[in-house]
Amino acid sequence: MTSSIYTSSIPVFKQMLGGLKTVLSKAETHAADKKIDPNALLQARLYPDMFPLLRQVQVASDFAKSVSARLAGVEVPKLDDSEQTFADLQARIDTVLAFMDSLPAANFDEAATREIVTQAGTPKEKRFTGQSYVLNYGLPHFFFHTTTAYAILRHNGVEVGKKDYIGSY
């Protein structure tokens, strides 16, 4: 039997990252077609105090990989955050998807009750059960950043819609 934590997280992350790949691809095509410097979109933000598109994608992918790793009881892989182009962001998402594909579903069997500690030993330390971690922390943060990435591109004229955002399911 597959863990309910696995089925409520890994397929969701994979579906939404697929949607994010689609909207990024459409953004790159839009920039080329309209002769817009791709960096104008990569550095676009909804408001001055918010992260730009590039960072939104990095953070969304960070949540997908770190939540998946912690729930599976494995070390969180490090990524360099050195992406500068749409191709770099696509490669980052592919790396995260490959990592998630490498996680055996059996690793999630005890995930609901596993203790998850974020930022251990710091004033920002938080403790969760696996179930609370994924449902109340991980997925909401992940959706915030994927939604914001989509909104930045839509706001900047990239012709994307809900079907692109949702991805294949």
Question: What do these coordinates show?
Answer:
The radius of gyration is 16 Å and the shape is globular. It is mainly alpha-helical and 169 residues long. Strand 1 (115-118) and strand 2 form a beta hairpin. It has one domain: Four Helix Bundle (Hemerythrin (Met), subunit A), CATH 1.20.120.450. The chain has seven helices and two strands; from the N terminus they run αααααββαα. 32% of the residues are buried. The protein has helices at 4-7, 10-33, 38-42, 53-72, 86-101, 130-155, 162-166, and strands spanning 115-118, 126-129. It is 59% helix and 5% strand.
What can be said about this structure in brief?
With 169 residues, this protein is mostly helical. The protein has seven helices and two strands.
Please report which band the strand proportion falls in: under 5%, 5-15%, 15-25%, 25-35%, 35-45% or over 45%.
under 5%
CATH superfamily label: dinb family like domain
The number of domains is 1
Which strand order spans the largest sheet, edge to edge or round the barrel?
1-2
Distance between the termini: 21 Å
Stated plainly, the CATH topology is called Four Helix Bundle (Hemerythrin (Met), subunit A)
Number of helices: 7
Describe the largest sheet: 2 strands, antiparallel
User: Any guess at the CATH architecture?
Assistant: Up-down Bundle
Q: What is the 3D shape?
A: globular
Supply Rg. Answer: 16 Å
Helical content, roughly? Answer: 55-70%
SSE series:
HHHHHEEHH
Q: Mean pLDDT across all residues, rounded? A: 96
Structural class: mainly alpha
As residue ranges, the low-confidence spans are none
